[in-house]
Write a structure and sequence with these properties.
The chain starts with a helix and ends with a helix. The chain has a domain of 36 residues. It has 95 residues and is an alpha+beta fold. It has four helices and four strands. It binds zinc ion. InterPro entries: PP0621-like.
C-alpha cells in the first residue's frame, strides 16, 4: 500500500514537471510531440470557447428602470419584460 502511494506521488511529480517543462519550451520544439499536444490544444480551445458562448445570451431592457439583464432572468407581464418581480409589480400597479 505504501508503494502505491509513492507511485502516485511519482506520477504527480512527473506530470507537474512535464507541464512546466512544456510551458517553457519554444514553439518549434513543441511540434515534436504533436500527437500529445494537439489533443490538449483542442481541449484548451473548447475551454476558451465555452465562457464566450455563455455570454452570447440575448439581453432585455427592463420596462420600468431600463436596466439591461439576461433574457433568462426576465419577469414578463403581458408584452413587457422587467428585471425583477418588484418592478413588474410596480409597473402593473401604476398603469
Ligand atoms: Zn427594473
Amino acid at each position: 500500500m505504501k508503494l502505491f502511494l509513492w507511485l502516485c506521488l511519482a506520477v504527480l511529480v512527473y506530470l507537474a514537471l512535464r507541464k512546466s517543462f512544456r510551458a517553457n519550451m519554444p514553439p518549434s520544439n513543441r511540434n515534436q510531440d504533436s500527437a500529445n499536444t494537439s489533443q490538449e490544444d483542442w481541449r484548451e480551445d473548447q475551454f476558451v470557447q465555452n465562457p464566450s458562448a455563455k455570454q452570447v445570451e440575448s439581453m432585455l431592457s427592463c420596462a420600468h428602470c431600463q436596466v439591461y439583464f439576461p433574457a433568462s432572468e426576465s419577469v414578463q407581464r403581458g408584452n413587457l419584460h422587467y428585471c425583477c418581480a418588484e418592478h413588474a409589480d410596480i409597473a402593473s400597479k401604476t398603469s
